[in-house]
# Entry
Amino acid sequence: MSITIKEIAEKANLSIATVSRALNNLDNVKPATRDLVLSIAGELNYKPNVIARNLVKNTSNIIGVVLPQIDGEFFSEIIHGIDEIAYTGGYHVIVASSHSQRTVAQSIINFMGETIVGGMIILAPMINDQIREIIKGTSVPTVIINGRTHLDNIDTVSIDNYQGAYSMTEYLIKIKGYKKIAHIKGPILNTDASMRYKGYIAALKDNHIQIDESWIINGEFTAESGENGCRRLLSLNEKPEVIFAGNDMMALGCFRVVKAFGMKIPNDIGVVGFDNIMLSEFASPRLTTVHVPISEIGKTATEILLKRMKTTSDNNFKHLKISTGLVIGDSC
Amino acid sequence: MSITIKEIAEKANLSIATVSRALNNLDNVKPATRDLVLSIAGELNYKPNVIARNLVKNTSNIIGVVLPQIDGEFFSEIIHGIDEIAYTGGYHVIVASSHSQRTVAQSIINFMGETIVGGMIILAPMINDQIREIIKGTSVPTVIINGRTHLDNIDTVSIDNYQGAYSMTEYLIKIKGYKKIAHIKGPILNTDASMRYKGYIAALKDNHIQIDESWIINGEFTAESGENGCRRLLSLNEKPEVIFAGNDMMALGCFRVVKAFGMKIPNDIGVVGFDNIMLSEFASPRLTTVHVPISEIGKTATEILLKRMKTTSDNNFKHLKISTGLVIGDSC
DNA sequence: ATCAAATTTGTAAACGTTTACATTATTAAA
DNA sequence: TTTAATAATGTAAACGTTTACAAATTTGAT
# Structure
């Protein structure tokens, strides 16, 4: 069995209360005794029993992370970001990735139901009413990543998709001189997707470029849907000069189709994306895209969460936007 | 506050002991009372406090997963596999990914020190003496993925790298008719890498092909090291006909260099890899490689772990090998 | 109906902490 | 010194379970 404060107390001729206070260096404990306790603790290689502490404190130093079905790269990067901050704060990270056996909503309910987590980070690009209701009813501090920001009784962290798409579109217009700019959108209910679309539209309008509905295609953020979108665009009478795909996977889908059509990127048509995934670095030509600092999103969300876990009575909810940056490749 | 067995006991006019027994449907509890308890529990939406249970049972329904710095795809797949099995068994998964703040060894010590995990899965392609010592001294049930199998007082799950590399090499020789087969190895201390190398050598020997040391290059499992290796191979007087890279990332590095040299794959030189990562699907031509069922590894490891967590007194340690399969692309 | 055995339930301690409250020791002012 | 204020420590309850052990109830054979 492992060392408990009881043993330390015995060895130091103190009560367990004082030992506890000394270890957590609380209010009134004489420096000499604190040093004594600490040295004995070190000697015995004492490690606090987190479970016991959690029980009495009615909370937990575990952060639950709920993830939808997402790309492996995004998955690992976000966990890394969360884990790094959590670790330095003495917290652990439980992941609940969505799979055949479990939906996002179920994961959340699970986490809250068992007393297992002291805080939650939910990655929900497509937050729906069900999830919203569940979260509303909980007392577990929660941060949502990529939620609609108008969930205002909860902290949120999101990518500044609007700004990213706006910058990219403006870059295509002002720097590259394109006028015929197509866009392949992401899933309809996906917040990221719709904000990117809005940024694209706004940049066109601000630069007095006529919006052509036939150049706006629905996609699903998958390579395949990018292929389909691209095929449709290339079969139009009036083809666009450049395709702004809602994400990199779709852009890579476009790459495939363009090549299959025997056309050259960027000479015959430009293709740009959004996300800056690792894959895009291996594409040839190198993809011009919008960099999303995934790990930073995780870190920021965790920082906010830890603060909230420490001070519950703060009604000032944060809505942070993580800004993006253009990555200039050779694809337009 | 949430519902406890105390409240159920009150409502049912029973002691908390009986309620506990009923909920865990233990030995001797009258069917009628069990039903009563269960219905009240359902009514009140009772969820057991796992923390309290863990405290008294001196264990935990949390599995700690220790991961080194690995590729995002591998990371997420393995977690998925682990999580899926863990979830159906009522377990949670804590991840400790290695990052700037923490090494693998530290993660393990952390997990064991705090009472936080009831079992561990350690992904350690480069298991060293330090880690071995730490694991030896723990009472936490542990499964190692990719460890040397000669750690015989512990369960292990590993990829059958030898068989995979052997099959690939044999395929190159017998089906494709290659005789000049180069190999770019992975990191020296990496078990996967060395087993792959051994498989390659064995297949050459078994097919009576002279081994040429200048065609065997050290790599680091990174795209860059693949580039370097390829560059060296292409600058030899007697060039190989095909390069068997120790993993896909290095194979993709080769792709880049071959293209930069103005050569064509597979006409001028063949390139094959190992792992079957998603990236390789996007390479052109499609990479011929060895498929590693990552998710299945995670699942298998978890199944073994859960069994061991339930019955501690089993000294019959398992050493499972997950077999691989060839994926035929167009790169050789 | 009686008694022993078997079944079912209850009592209370335990798990390792934290913390309100009580007690004791120390300090500083009178 | 005495006394009051302050600082340091101790006592004991609490967190929500599980589980030996004890007690009570039911069952079945006589």
Notes: Residues 72-88 of chain A form the longest helix (17 residues). Chain A touches chain B at residues 2, 47-52, 54-55, 60, 62, 72-77, 79-80, 83-84, 87-88, 92-97, 99-102, 113-116, 223, 252, 259, 278-279, 282-284 (CB under 8 Å). The longest strand of chain A covers residues 62-67.
